[in-house]
Amino acid sequence: PPVRYEAENATYSAGSTVDSDHTGYSGTGFVNTANEVGAYVSFGVSATGGGTADLTLRYSNGTTSDRPMDISVDGIVVAAAKSFPPNGSWDSWADVTVGVPLAAGTHTVRATATTANGAPNLDHLEVREP
Ligand code: GCU
Ligand code: CA
């Protein structure tokens, strides 16, 4: 099964808040970043290694504009300006998955907003290894 990392337990850029004023999140809330380029959430994850892991971010974007983010692992961008499109409501959530080889050990997975719209609201990251 995938291992889940809650955004509210991760680290995030200054100006972010952990909120719970929209429904449907896991854990105790979600991270609402500032609406600015460079806003991020950074997860420490551990991997057993040996193949391509699926990194799935659960997010909400209740606007009508994309909120693309660079996805990086240990500082290397593995998916540039990955699309996090509108999903209808701040009270619903959607998943975006990136596949990346992960060696055994601990890694830093960061999602960084590439536009002035900032990040979508972020609920959690799941890491699924083969
Ligand atoms: C609204 C919404 C927030 C969201 C913000 C945004 O204020 O309630 O949860 O983070 O829009 O545009 O980023
Ligand atoms: Ca926000």
UniProtKB/TrEMBL annotation:
<feature type="domain" description="CBM6">
    <location>
        <begin position="3"/>
        <end position="128"/>
    </location>
</feature>
<protein>
    <submittedName>
        <fullName>Alpha-L-fucosidase</fullName>
    </submittedName>
</protein>
